[in-house]
Amino acid sequence: MADLGYVLAKIHGIHSKSVIGDTLTRYSKIDSIDKLEKALFAGETAEAPTKQIYTRVEDRFRSKIISQITDITAYLGTDNPLINAFLMRYEIENVKRIIRANINGEKATTGLTELVIPKGLDYKLIAKTDLTSPSALRDILTDTVFSFVTEKAQGKNTAETDILLDKFYYTNLLKAAQTLPKQQQEVITDIITDEINLTNIIWVLRLTKYYNTDNDKIRSMIIETDKTISADILLEMVKTDTSAERRAVKKYQRIFGSQTISNDTNITKAEQSADEYISRRYVKLFTQEYNILSVVAYIYIKMKEYSDIVRIVESLRYKA
Questions:
Q1: What are the pLDDT digits (tens) for 97-113?
Q2: Separation between Cα atoms, residue 125 and residue 141, nearest integer Å
Q3: What is the predicted pLDDT for the residue at 173?
Q4: Are 149 and 141 in contact (CB under 8 A)?
Q5: If you write DSSP's letter for every residue of 68-104 in order, what string do you get?
Q6: Measuring CA to CA, which residue among 246, 238, 231 is closest to residue 265?
Q7: Which residues, at least 6 apart from 64, have a Cβ–Cβ distance to it below 8 Å?
Q8: Which residue, of 4, 115, 179, 295, has the greatest Cβ tally within 10 A?
Protein backbone atom coordinates (compact mmCIF):
# COMPACT_ATOMS: atom_id res chain seq x y z
CA MET A 1 0.00 0.00 0.00
CA ALA A 2 1.33 3.42 -0.93
CA ASP A 3 1.89 6.23 1.53
CA LEU A 4 -1.50 7.83 2.25
CA GLY A 5 0.02 11.31 2.00
CA TYR A 6 1.02 10.61 -1.61
CA VAL A 7 -2.48 9.36 -2.41
CA LEU A 8 -4.10 12.43 -0.85
CA ALA A 9 -1.84 14.79 -2.79
CA LYS A 10 -2.65 12.92 -6.00
CA ILE A 11 -6.44 13.01 -5.57
CA HIS A 12 -6.42 16.70 -4.74
CA GLY A 13 -4.53 17.30 -7.97
CA ILE A 14 -7.07 15.28 -9.95
CA HIS A 15 -9.96 16.97 -8.14
CA SER A 16 -8.79 20.40 -9.29
CA LYS A 17 -9.83 19.40 -12.81
CA SER A 18 -13.15 17.79 -11.85
CA VAL A 19 -16.39 18.77 -13.55
CA ILE A 20 -18.16 20.18 -10.51
CA GLY A 21 -19.31 23.57 -9.25
CA ASP A 22 -18.83 26.42 -11.74
CA THR A 23 -17.34 24.08 -14.32
CA LEU A 24 -20.44 21.86 -14.20
CA THR A 25 -22.67 24.94 -14.49
CA ARG A 26 -20.73 26.03 -17.58
CA TYR A 27 -20.96 22.59 -19.16
CA SER A 28 -24.69 22.48 -18.42
CA LYS A 29 -25.13 25.47 -20.72
CA ILE A 30 -23.45 23.79 -23.71
CA ASP A 31 -26.03 23.40 -26.48
CA SER A 32 -24.72 20.47 -28.54
CA ILE A 33 -23.15 17.07 -27.93
CA ASP A 34 -20.24 17.92 -30.25
CA LYS A 35 -19.31 20.96 -28.14
CA LEU A 36 -19.67 18.96 -24.92
CA GLU A 37 -17.33 16.26 -26.20
CA LYS A 38 -14.71 18.85 -27.14
CA ALA A 39 -15.02 20.52 -23.73
CA LEU A 40 -14.70 17.24 -21.84
CA PHE A 41 -11.79 15.84 -23.81
CA ALA A 42 -9.67 18.89 -24.60
CA GLY A 43 -10.94 19.25 -28.15
CA GLU A 44 -10.45 15.58 -29.03
CA THR A 45 -13.31 14.16 -31.09
CA ALA A 46 -13.80 11.23 -33.41
CA GLU A 47 -15.78 10.89 -36.61
CA ALA A 48 -19.12 9.22 -36.00
CA PRO A 49 -22.82 9.64 -36.81
CA THR A 50 -24.38 12.16 -34.42
CA LYS A 51 -26.59 9.54 -32.73
CA GLN A 52 -23.51 7.55 -31.74
CA ILE A 53 -21.77 10.54 -30.17
CA TYR A 54 -24.10 10.56 -27.15
CA THR A 55 -23.21 7.00 -26.20
CA ARG A 56 -19.55 7.56 -27.01
CA VAL A 57 -19.31 10.62 -24.73
CA GLU A 58 -20.88 8.67 -21.86
CA ASP A 59 -18.56 5.71 -22.45
CA ARG A 60 -15.45 7.86 -22.73
CA PHE A 61 -16.24 9.82 -19.61
CA ARG A 62 -17.11 6.68 -17.65
CA SER A 63 -13.79 5.13 -18.67
CA LYS A 64 -11.99 8.26 -17.53
CA ILE A 65 -13.71 8.23 -14.14
CA ILE A 66 -13.13 4.49 -13.62
CA SER A 67 -9.46 4.95 -14.47
CA GLN A 68 -9.11 7.77 -11.94
CA ILE A 69 -10.76 5.71 -9.21
CA THR A 70 -8.93 2.45 -9.89
CA ASP A 71 -5.58 4.24 -10.05
CA ILE A 72 -6.15 5.52 -6.52
CA THR A 73 -7.67 2.39 -5.02
CA ALA A 74 -4.82 0.32 -6.47
CA TYR A 75 -2.36 2.39 -4.42
CA LEU A 76 -4.35 1.68 -1.27
CA GLY A 77 -4.55 -2.07 -1.85
CA THR A 78 -7.63 -4.28 -2.10
CA ASP A 79 -8.19 -5.00 1.58
CA ASN A 80 -9.47 -1.65 2.88
CA PRO A 81 -12.99 -2.42 4.17
CA LEU A 82 -14.25 1.18 3.94
CA ILE A 83 -13.03 1.70 0.36
CA ASN A 84 -14.50 -1.64 -0.71
CA ALA A 85 -17.80 -0.86 1.01
CA PHE A 86 -17.95 2.49 -0.75
CA LEU A 87 -17.12 1.02 -4.15
CA MET A 88 -20.05 -1.34 -3.58
CA ARG A 89 -22.31 1.54 -4.61
CA TYR A 90 -21.11 1.18 -8.21
CA GLU A 91 -21.61 -2.57 -8.16
CA ILE A 92 -25.13 -2.18 -6.79
CA GLU A 93 -26.05 0.18 -9.62
CA ASN A 94 -24.74 -2.47 -12.02
CA VAL A 95 -26.88 -5.14 -10.35
CA LYS A 96 -29.93 -2.89 -10.67
CA ARG A 97 -29.21 -2.43 -14.39
CA ILE A 98 -28.83 -6.16 -14.91
CA ILE A 99 -32.09 -6.91 -13.09
CA ARG A 100 -33.97 -4.31 -15.12
CA ALA A 101 -32.55 -5.68 -18.36
CA ASN A 102 -33.71 -9.15 -17.34
CA ILE A 103 -37.20 -7.91 -16.47
CA ASN A 104 -37.46 -5.88 -19.70
CA GLY A 105 -36.47 -8.85 -21.85
CA GLU A 106 -33.11 -7.38 -22.94
CA LYS A 107 -30.39 -9.89 -23.82
CA ALA A 108 -27.59 -7.62 -22.65
CA THR A 109 -26.97 -4.33 -20.88
CA THR A 110 -24.30 -1.71 -21.52
CA GLY A 111 -22.71 1.08 -19.53
CA LEU A 112 -21.70 -0.99 -16.51
CA THR A 113 -19.04 0.47 -14.24
CA GLU A 114 -16.45 -2.30 -14.00
CA LEU A 115 -14.58 -2.20 -10.71
CA VAL A 116 -12.99 -5.04 -8.77
CA ILE A 117 -14.21 -5.69 -5.24
CA PRO A 118 -14.19 -8.90 -3.14
CA LYS A 119 -16.99 -11.27 -4.23
CA GLY A 120 -18.18 -8.70 -6.77
CA LEU A 121 -19.59 -9.18 -10.25
CA ASP A 122 -17.83 -11.23 -12.92
CA TYR A 123 -18.01 -8.98 -15.98
CA LYS A 124 -16.74 -11.61 -18.38
CA LEU A 125 -19.58 -13.86 -17.26
CA ILE A 126 -22.09 -11.04 -17.63
CA ALA A 127 -20.85 -10.29 -21.17
CA LYS A 128 -21.47 -13.84 -22.34
CA THR A 129 -24.79 -14.37 -20.50
CA ASP A 130 -28.12 -13.99 -22.27
CA LEU A 131 -30.01 -11.90 -19.71
CA THR A 132 -33.35 -13.23 -20.99
CA SER A 133 -32.39 -16.74 -19.89
CA PRO A 134 -34.44 -18.03 -16.92
CA SER A 135 -31.22 -18.83 -15.07
CA ALA A 136 -29.41 -15.57 -15.97
CA LEU A 137 -29.78 -13.81 -12.62
CA ARG A 138 -28.94 -16.94 -10.66
CA ASP A 139 -25.87 -17.60 -12.83
CA ILE A 140 -24.59 -14.03 -12.44
CA LEU A 141 -25.36 -13.44 -8.76
CA THR A 142 -24.90 -16.81 -7.02
CA ASP A 143 -21.17 -16.50 -6.25
CA THR A 144 -21.34 -12.79 -5.33
CA VAL A 145 -22.29 -10.81 -2.23
CA PHE A 146 -25.54 -9.98 -4.05
CA SER A 147 -26.91 -13.53 -4.14
CA PHE A 148 -29.50 -12.61 -1.47
CA VAL A 149 -31.47 -10.55 -3.99
CA THR A 150 -31.84 -13.26 -6.65
CA GLU A 151 -35.19 -14.63 -5.52
CA LYS A 152 -36.76 -11.19 -5.10
CA ALA A 153 -35.42 -10.08 -8.50
CA GLN A 154 -36.99 -13.09 -10.18
CA GLY A 155 -40.31 -11.84 -8.81
CA LYS A 156 -39.82 -8.81 -11.08
CA ASN A 157 -40.43 -6.24 -8.34
CA THR A 158 -37.78 -3.58 -8.98
CA ALA A 159 -38.90 -1.37 -6.10
CA GLU A 160 -38.34 -4.14 -3.56
CA THR A 161 -35.03 -5.27 -5.08
CA ASP A 162 -33.75 -1.70 -5.17
CA ILE A 163 -34.55 -1.24 -1.50
CA LEU A 164 -32.96 -4.54 -0.52
CA LEU A 165 -29.78 -3.59 -2.37
CA ASP A 166 -29.72 -0.11 -0.82
CA LYS A 167 -30.30 -1.62 2.61
CA PHE A 168 -27.39 -3.98 2.08
CA TYR A 169 -25.15 -1.15 0.89
CA TYR A 170 -25.75 1.11 3.88
CA THR A 171 -25.59 -1.71 6.43
CA ASN A 172 -22.27 -2.84 4.97
CA LEU A 173 -20.97 0.74 4.84
CA LEU A 174 -21.81 1.43 8.49
CA LYS A 175 -20.08 -1.80 9.50
CA ALA A 176 -16.97 -0.79 7.55
CA ALA A 177 -17.01 2.69 9.13
CA GLN A 178 -16.60 1.04 12.55
CA THR A 179 -13.04 0.07 11.58
CA LEU A 180 -11.99 3.75 11.63
CA PRO A 181 -10.54 5.76 14.52
CA LYS A 182 -13.32 7.26 16.67
CA GLN A 183 -13.23 10.83 15.29
CA GLN A 184 -13.23 9.70 11.67
CA GLN A 185 -15.92 7.13 12.43
CA GLU A 186 -18.18 9.83 13.89
CA VAL A 187 -17.70 12.15 10.91
CA ILE A 188 -18.51 9.57 8.21
CA THR A 189 -21.29 7.93 10.24
CA ASP A 190 -23.07 11.28 10.53
CA ILE A 191 -23.08 11.67 6.74
CA ILE A 192 -24.14 8.06 6.18
CA THR A 193 -26.98 8.52 8.70
CA ASP A 194 -28.23 11.53 6.76
CA GLU A 195 -28.07 9.50 3.54
CA ILE A 196 -30.05 6.70 5.17
CA ASN A 197 -32.71 9.03 6.56
CA LEU A 198 -33.14 10.76 3.22
CA THR A 199 -33.24 7.43 1.38
CA ASN A 200 -35.83 6.10 3.84
CA ILE A 201 -38.00 9.21 3.57
CA ILE A 202 -38.06 9.05 -0.21
CA TRP A 203 -38.75 5.32 -0.24
CA VAL A 204 -41.64 5.69 2.23
CA LEU A 205 -43.12 8.44 0.07
CA ARG A 206 -42.74 6.36 -3.09
CA LEU A 207 -44.04 3.11 -1.59
CA THR A 208 -47.11 4.74 -0.08
CA LYS A 209 -47.89 7.04 -3.01
CA TYR A 210 -47.23 4.80 -6.01
CA TYR A 211 -47.22 1.21 -4.76
CA ASN A 212 -49.80 1.27 -1.94
CA THR A 213 -47.43 -0.88 0.11
CA ASP A 214 -48.76 -1.86 3.54
CA ASN A 215 -47.03 -0.58 6.66
CA ASP A 216 -45.62 -3.93 7.78
CA LYS A 217 -43.95 -4.40 4.40
CA ILE A 218 -42.49 -0.89 4.53
CA ARG A 219 -41.17 -1.48 8.05
CA SER A 220 -39.30 -4.55 6.82
CA MET A 221 -37.60 -2.45 4.15
CA ILE A 222 -36.60 0.58 6.23
CA ILE A 223 -32.91 0.83 7.16
CA GLU A 224 -32.85 1.39 10.92
CA THR A 225 -29.93 2.09 13.22
CA ASP A 226 -29.75 3.66 16.66
CA LYS A 227 -29.16 7.03 14.97
CA THR A 228 -31.77 6.99 12.18
CA ILE A 229 -35.42 8.06 12.25
CA SER A 230 -37.62 5.11 13.20
CA ALA A 231 -39.95 3.40 10.75
CA ASP A 232 -42.95 4.32 12.92
CA ILE A 233 -42.19 8.03 12.75
CA LEU A 234 -41.51 7.85 9.01
CA LEU A 235 -44.88 6.16 8.43
CA GLU A 236 -46.67 8.75 10.56
CA MET A 237 -44.83 11.51 8.72
CA VAL A 238 -46.75 10.96 5.48
CA LYS A 239 -50.21 11.20 7.05
CA THR A 240 -49.89 13.55 10.05
CA ASP A 241 -48.17 16.74 11.09
CA THR A 242 -47.78 16.25 14.82
CA SER A 243 -45.02 17.85 16.83
CA ALA A 244 -43.14 14.54 17.17
CA GLU A 245 -42.95 14.02 13.44
CA ARG A 246 -42.07 17.68 12.83
CA ARG A 247 -39.15 17.50 15.25
CA ALA A 248 -37.84 14.26 13.76
CA VAL A 249 -37.85 15.41 10.15
CA LYS A 250 -37.36 19.17 10.60
CA LYS A 251 -33.81 19.06 9.24
CA TYR A 252 -34.97 17.24 6.13
CA GLN A 253 -37.92 19.55 5.58
CA ARG A 254 -35.39 22.33 5.18
CA ILE A 255 -33.44 20.26 2.66
CA PHE A 256 -36.60 19.62 0.63
CA GLY A 257 -37.70 23.25 0.98
CA SER A 258 -41.03 22.12 2.44
CA GLN A 259 -43.10 22.94 5.51
CA THR A 260 -44.19 19.31 5.68
CA ILE A 261 -43.17 15.99 4.18
CA SER A 262 -46.25 14.11 3.00
CA ASN A 263 -47.77 12.31 0.04
CA ASP A 264 -48.07 15.73 -1.60
CA THR A 265 -44.27 16.13 -1.63
CA ASN A 266 -42.76 16.24 -5.12
CA ILE A 267 -40.63 13.08 -4.97
CA THR A 268 -38.47 13.95 -7.99
CA LYS A 269 -37.55 17.33 -6.50
CA ALA A 270 -37.03 15.73 -3.10
CA GLU A 271 -34.53 13.28 -4.60
CA GLN A 272 -32.68 16.11 -6.33
CA SER A 273 -32.53 18.13 -3.11
CA ALA A 274 -31.31 15.11 -1.15
CA ASP A 275 -28.64 14.40 -3.76
CA GLU A 276 -27.41 18.00 -3.71
CA TYR A 277 -27.29 18.08 0.10
CA ILE A 278 -25.27 14.87 0.40
CA SER A 279 -22.95 15.98 -2.40
CA ARG A 280 -22.20 19.22 -0.56
CA ARG A 281 -21.36 17.24 2.57
CA TYR A 282 -18.91 15.01 0.70
CA VAL A 283 -17.25 17.97 -1.02
CA LYS A 284 -16.83 19.60 2.39
CA LEU A 285 -15.43 16.32 3.74
CA PHE A 286 -12.94 16.18 0.89
CA THR A 287 -11.67 19.71 1.54
CA GLN A 288 -11.59 19.59 5.34
CA GLU A 289 -10.23 16.12 6.10
CA TYR A 290 -6.76 14.86 5.25
CA ASN A 291 -7.06 11.15 5.90
CA ILE A 292 -8.85 8.10 4.47
CA LEU A 293 -12.14 10.04 4.56
CA SER A 294 -10.77 12.30 1.82
CA VAL A 295 -10.37 9.23 -0.39
CA VAL A 296 -13.94 8.14 0.36
CA ALA A 297 -15.21 11.62 -0.48
CA TYR A 298 -13.14 11.61 -3.66
CA ILE A 299 -14.79 8.37 -4.81
CA TYR A 300 -18.22 9.86 -4.13
CA ILE A 301 -17.35 13.05 -6.02
CA LYS A 302 -16.12 11.03 -9.01
CA MET A 303 -19.34 9.04 -9.08
CA LYS A 304 -21.41 12.24 -8.84
CA GLU A 305 -19.31 13.80 -11.59
CA TYR A 306 -20.13 10.92 -13.94
CA SER A 307 -23.86 10.98 -13.14
CA ASP A 308 -23.94 14.75 -13.76
CA ILE A 309 -22.33 14.33 -17.19
CA VAL A 310 -24.80 11.57 -18.06
CA ARG A 311 -27.61 13.94 -17.08
CA ILE A 312 -26.24 16.64 -19.41
CA VAL A 313 -25.81 14.13 -22.25
CA GLU A 314 -29.37 12.88 -21.81
CA SER A 315 -30.65 16.45 -21.79
CA LEU A 316 -28.89 17.14 -25.10
CA ARG A 317 -30.13 13.84 -26.53
CA TYR A 318 -33.71 14.77 -25.56
CA LYS A 319 -33.44 18.17 -27.21
CA ALA A 320 -31.88 16.83 -30.44
A1: 999 999 999 999 988 88
A2: 10
A3: 94
A4: yes
A5: HHHHHHHHH-S--HHHHHHHHHHHHHHHHHHHHHHHT
A6: 238
A7: none
A8: 295
